[in-house]
Design goal:
Elements lengths: L1 H9 L6 E7 L2 E7 L1 H99 L30 H21 L6 H51 L25 H28 L11 E3 L2 E4 L6 E4 L2 E4 L5 E3 L4 E8 L5 E8 L2 E11 L6 E2 L4 E5 L9 E8 L2 E3 L1 H15 L1
Helix pairs in contact: 2-3, 2-4, 2-5, 3-4, 4-5, 4-6
Length: 431
């Protein structure tokens, strides 16, 4: 009853298929299940799909390989074109860099020429100052900074013999940097940057050299003016003492000249200034030599004056008498020093002077030193300012040990105090 109910509800169960295989006397039975049928269909479908896929691959393989090769060839051509373009850019940069390097080397050569000119000028100035005995500082060829030099004397280094190597290094560095940037696929303004940096550097150096040159000319003018002013002061003092001064060194002779006007050249300006300085220093040295040779020093430094130049009571007769010099208090044996350079024209006993030395200083001026206890020079000796010529005493017409000192111009006695006072003014000017 239950079985019948189930058949009514779910339907009649499907009978399985049976395959009978007979081979001679042998008979086999094979029952075909539904899942076996499904599995067989799936297997056959997979085989069919595999066959279709393999057939499609074989058909399309040549097309795929051709397309791939075409794409690779196209990419290769594009890379080759890019490489060729980069090489062309590198060549252009290299050519530009070579030109920039040549320009830099030309500028360096010009800077070197300017430096050598300044060095030569400084050597001329040093030789001139040393020859004239001047002691001063002048701007030289020191170092040139990248900034403009300051007035406090700071200097920067100027280009030296390694400057061409510096230019080559600058060019190589710029070339390598440009090639590196090109290899990365972009071209910045490297060569322009290098050229700009070089131009700024050379501009600063050129300005520094020009300022040094201007400072040299200005300093030369200052020295020439100072030398002329000092020479004028010395000459004025000498003239007030009646000393003739050779003014030929101070006169600028005007020769007959002419020609069309042309802009001045810096080298000519420098030579003109140097000639003016040379003339001023020559004149200064001339008047200094004259002043050093004349009797402006003190014959008995630190000694008191006991009798001055002019009329005074005569120590022996009591009446007025002319005193042709000045007397210095000097104990016997005190060293007597010359007041100027010259030649001894008298040395020994001379009437009322006692032991006396007379020195000719030139220009008609002579000095006499009397009453010496001992004479230490002889006629014909050349003496310099400050040389010891004898020892003080009381020989001749004297009342006690002292030094009688006279100055004579063209044989006439003059007041020695004028020369002593002038000597105090000349000391800072001639030393």
């Amino acid at each position: 009853m239950a079985a019948g109910t189930n058949n009514q509800v779910f339907g009649r169960r499907k009978e399985p298929h049976v395959v009978i295989l007979a081979s001679g006397d042998r008979i086999r039975h094979m029952t075909i299940r539904p899942w076996m049928t499904l599995l067989t269909v799936c297997f056959l479908g997979i085989l069919a799909l595999g066959y279709l896929g393999a057939t499609t691959y074989l058909v399309l393989r040549d097309n795929l390989i051709g397309a791939t090769m075409a794409r690779q060839a196209r990419m290769q051509h594009e890379y080759e074109d890019r490489i060729a373009a980069l090489r062309a850019q590198v060549d252009r940069v290299t050519s530009r860099q070579l030109l920039d390097q040549q320009v830099v080397e030309d500028k360096v050569e010009k800077l070197l020429e300017q430096q050598m000119a300044l060095t030569s000028r400084h050597g001329k100035i040093d030789a001139l100052l040393q020859g004239a005995g001047a002691d001063t500082d002048l701007p030289g060829d020191g170092p040139v900074p990248t900034d403009r030099p300051k007035k406090d004397g700071n200097e920067a280094s100027l280009p030296n013999k390694s400057a061409p190597a510096f230019a080559s290094l600058l060019g190589s560095a710029g070339k390598q940097e440009a090639a590196s940037n090109l290899a990365l696929g972009y071209v910045p303004m490297t060569q322009e940057n290098v050229a700009d940096r070089a131009d700024r550097l050379f501009s600063h150096m050129t300005l520094s050299l020009k300022e040094i040159e201007a400072e040299q000319l200005e300093r030369i003018d200052e020295l020439a003016s100072g030398a002329s002013a000092t020479a004028d002061k010395i000459a004025g003092i000498l003239k007030r003492q009646g000393v003739p001064v050779d003014e030929q060194a101070a006169v600028q002779t005007q020769d007959a000249v002419g020609g069309p006007y042309l802009a001045p050249r810096s080298e000519q300006d420098f030579n003109t200034s140097l000639n003016e300085l040379d003339a001023a220093l020559t004149r200064l040295e001339s008047v200094r030599d004259t002043a050093r040779r004349l009797p402006f020093a003190n014959p008995a430094p630190g000694r008191d004056i006991t009798s001055r130049f002019g009329n005074r009571p005569d120590p022996f007769f009591g009446g007025l008498a002319m005193h042709a010099g000045i007397d210095f208090r000097a104990p016997t044996g005190t060293e007597i020093r010359t007041t100027g350079a010259g030649k001894v024209i008298a040395a020994g006993q001379s009437g009322g002077y006692g032991n006396m030395v007379e020195i000719d200083h030139g220009l008609g001026i002579s000095t006499r030193y009397g009453h010496m206890s001992r004479v230490l020079v002889k006629v014909g000796d050349e003496v310099a300012t400050g040389d010891v010529i004898g020892l003080s005493g009381s020989t001749g017409r004297s009342t006690g040990p002292h030094l009688h000192y006279e100055i004579r111009r063209n044989g006439d006695a003059v007041d020695p105090m004028q020369f002593l006072n002038a000597g105090m003014k000349l000391t800072p000017l001639i030393n």
